[in-house]
Each structure stands twice: as C-alpha cells, then as structure tokens.
Design brief:
This protein is α/β, with parallel strands linked by helices. The protein is about 45% helix and about 20% strand. It contains eleven helices and eight strands. Strand 3, helix 4 and strand 4 form a beta-alpha-beta unit. Helix 1 packs antiparallel against helix 2, helix 2 packs across helix 8 and helix 5 packs across helix 6.
Amino acid sequence: MFKKIKYLILVKSIGLYLNILSFFAPLKAQKEAAFIFSNPRKGKLSLNDLPKILEGTVKQTLFFKNHSFHTYSWIGNEEIIMLLHGWESNSSRWKKTIPYLKKTGKTIVAIDAPAHGLSSGNQFNVPLYTEFLEVATQYFKPQITIGHSIGGGTCIYHQHKYPNSNLKKMILLGAPSDLKIILNNYVDLLSLNSKIKKLLEVYFQLEFNITMDDFSGAKFAEKIEIPAFIAHDKNDKIVSFAEGVKLFKAFPKSTFVETDFLGHSLHDDELYKKMLLFIMDK
C-alpha cells in the first residue's frame, strides 16, 4: 500500500511540474511529456543473466538506422512464427506460450522491442517497433505474427504499412486499437492540463506524420484480409475490453475469444490450446 501511495505522489508531482512548465516553456514541456510517455521504466535484460527460457535459443542482432535489436529463435521447420511482446516487458514473457507453439513444429522467433530486453535505446513507440519488425520480416519472412498488448498493435500497423504477402495469420492478445485512448490514459494518470494534451497530439503528428484520430488499429485492420485470432479479457485493467471488441469488428476475417479473470497477461492453458488450433487449422 505504501509503495502505491508513493508511486501516486510521484506521478502526480510529475504531472504538476509539466502543467506549470507548459505555461512558461511549452516546447520544453512538450518534449519532456513526450519523453516520459515513451520511456519504459523496466523490461531491460542483461546478456550475462538471461531468463532460462532465452538461454538455449539462437540469438541474433539486427539493425535499423542507429538502433540495434535482438531476436531469439527456437528452431523448428521452415515456417516462422514471430512474437512481439508489449510495454515494459521483453521476450521472456513468452515462456508459458513457447511449449504450446513448439507443438506446431514451426520455428519461433521473438523480438525485443525498442528500449526493452537487449535492444538499444530508451524510447519506445509503435512506429519504431514497426521498423524493427519490418527488418525482422525481411530477414526471417514469418507466416504468423503473435503480439501481446502494444506488440499486437505493432503487428497491425506493420501489416498496414508494409503488407507482408507471406503472412497467413495474426494473433492479437490484449491489444489496443487507438493511440488516442492510450494518450488519454497517460494524460489522466498524470492529471495533465489540456494545453499539454494538445502539445502531445501535435508532437506525435509531426513525429509520425499521422493524426491521433487516424492512428487506429481498427482503421488499419479494415483492409487486412488475413485471418486474425483476437483474445481479450473482460477484466483487463491495462487495455480495455472494448478495444479488443473494436478490433474484432474491424478485421474482415477474425475469431474473438473472450476470457475472464486472466487480466492483461492472458496466460492460460485453455487459451493456448485455442491458439494452437487456430495456427494448425488449414
């Protein structure tokens, strides 16, 4: 309880600082608010102390501009399943999923997102993650992508921006749809004023060349014709259940699995069995 109170005080103090700064130095407030929004506090790994699930994998380092990012492969046949974790996580989050995916006989490849795992940097956003995925796609040529949380949002945006003709299926676990909702949650958490909110919207539009309203997984999904498996928990406190429903309604070919009491992580044997059936279904 004390840790929660301490965290809340810290968060609200940061919000108060940014609100005051917005009146005296709005551009500085914009830059600092954007940095905090995109700066994960945890999720990094050490090469000398990797989680057990990653120890026996084939490890490769790939590059995008001045960024390096790491991949881990569990070798199977020539077909590739690519895994993308979410915010403040890393490739070890798949440790409960991997045993089920191995039953497919396919090669499994997991990516450490920007500023996570063994990958470089201190900033994370979907457009940059998408560029990492595009480099990995050109290298590995996956037939199936599986994304958890923002990793799922990245799978959608990547297929919108860089249509992969080899991709046969997509699995989305607790994935968000709209960047605007994520931003609004951030604004509410820090109790930021309307001035900061507008500055952030302008920042991301200039940075990514897309408006906040248009950065929507549901809008991107409308033209993605591959089958999608979408799972979302009714009690997800990180990404609302409504976001999963929104994606399900948008994908032309989709299966929706509603879970209960699994939370945002969605670790569950029965869910994995359903995923396995979806993957193996011809």
